[in-house]
Design goal:
It holds the Pfam family Cucumopine_C. InterPro entries: Cucumopine_C (IPR040602). It comes from Actinomadura montaniterrae. This protein is of the alpha+beta class and 314 residues long. It folds into 2 domains: 136 residues, Beta Barrel (Cyclophilin); 145 residues, no CATH class. It is built from 8 helices and 11 strands. The strands form 2 sheets. Strands 3-11-1-2-10-7-8-5-4 form a 9-stranded antiparallel β-sheet. A two-stranded antiparallel sheet has the order 6-9. A hairpin with a 4-residue loop joins strand 7 and strand 8. The longest helix is centred in the last third of the chain and has 27 residues. The termini are far apart.
């Protein structure tokens, strides 16, 4: 049994840092996070499930590593840390309503739960109203912070060049909003997507396509490759799952994603090893999940502030 490993999760702009201990409930997931430290990421907040913080972790392996212990997030103590195949590091800080099975990897120390709740409220304000980004810094306790996005490789030169370009773009937008999304949310849409000049409609559909493209399509392809699915079915799945959403998102303004996808689909037949297929898809997953995180942050959620559940307080 490994001894508990302590990490620190800080939000420098908020002046808040909490300590958490990784445990052995899902050891390979905890190891993957520990080995990736330190890193920084845009902090997000659940928009449906309740009092839950999450951010995209720059860790390719969590897309496919197995979980051995699952819990109902609603029933575990506040401060529980989760690592998910959505490439998220999450923290429960209060009531949750979504009955989702989750994979815990640790818990915030008891003495830091009040500070965690303070951070949660501030991040909600950031995501829902102010749009001032909050960056999370995750590091081993007592060690300096830092950041990197790991780069995988592919044997085929052209596909490895694609991996390099996607990696570079992911690093470029990791802590700074992509200009394409900024333009879209500001109503600068070259294709004029949005019937009768609307913008909110386009934003809704972009959000609705981006999240499953990263969470399900690309992540699912990575898992399928690691689970041994032969290359020919993997290629057919890739064409079926990613071509249409990427074409639509490029039309709405995410032209870099469209260009990367065209290069990927054109070169699929040159990928003759599952590990290379998984590497390319993992980089696309991380890139799209990063786009999704920024889209969720930039989205004007408070335009629906007048729409409240019956009996709910604001």
């Amino acid at each position: 049994m490994k001894t508990s490993r302590r990490i620190e999760i800080g939000w420098p702009v908020l002046g808040v840092t909490v300590a958490a201990d990784l445990d052995e409930r899902n050891p390979v997931l905890a190891d993957a996070i520990w080995d990736a430290l330190p890193y920084r990421s845009l902090q997000g907040h659940a928009l449906v499930a309740g009092h839950h913080l999450y951010h995209v972790a720059p860790v390719h392996d969590v897309l496919h590593l197995p979980a051995v212990h699952r819990v109902d997030r609603r029933a575990v103590p506040d401060g529980t840390l989760f690592c998910s195949r959505l490439q998220h590091l999450g923290i429960k800080y209060g009531e949750l309503t979504e009955p989702m099975a989750a994979t815990p990897i640790g818990r915030v120390t008891e003495g830091d739960l009040d500070a965690l709740a303070d951070a949660g409220r501030a991040v909600w304000e950031s995501v829902y109203s102010s749009k001032k980004p909050v960056v999370a810094e995750v590091r081993r306790a007592g060690e300096p912070g830092g950041h990197r996005v790991p780069r995988l490789t592919a044997a085929d030169p052209e596909m490895d060049a694609l991996v390099g370009d996607v990696h570079a773009e992911t690093e470029r937008i990791w802590l700074d909003p992509p200009q394409e999304l900024v333009d879209l949310h500001d109503g600068r849409i070259a294709s004029r997507a949005g019937t009768h000049g609307t913008v909110l409609t386009t934003l809704l559909f972009v959000n609705g396509e981006t999240r499953p493209l990263g969470y399900n399509a690309y992540s699912g392809l990575v898992r399928a490759a690691h689970e041994g699915l032969p290359l020919e079915p993997l290629r057919r799945m890739a064409h079926a799952l990613i071509a249409v959403p990427a074409e639509f998102l490029a039309y709405c303004g995410l032209e870099k994603l469209g260009g990367f996808t065209e290069r990927l689909l054109d070169g699929l037949d040159r990928l003759d090893r599952r590990q290379d297929f998984a590497a390319v898809m993992a980089h696309m997953a991380l890139y799209v999940n990063c786009l999704g995180g920024w889209n969720l942050h930039l989205f004007p959620w408070n335009v629906g502030d007048h729409l409240r559940q019956a009996g709910a307080a604001s």
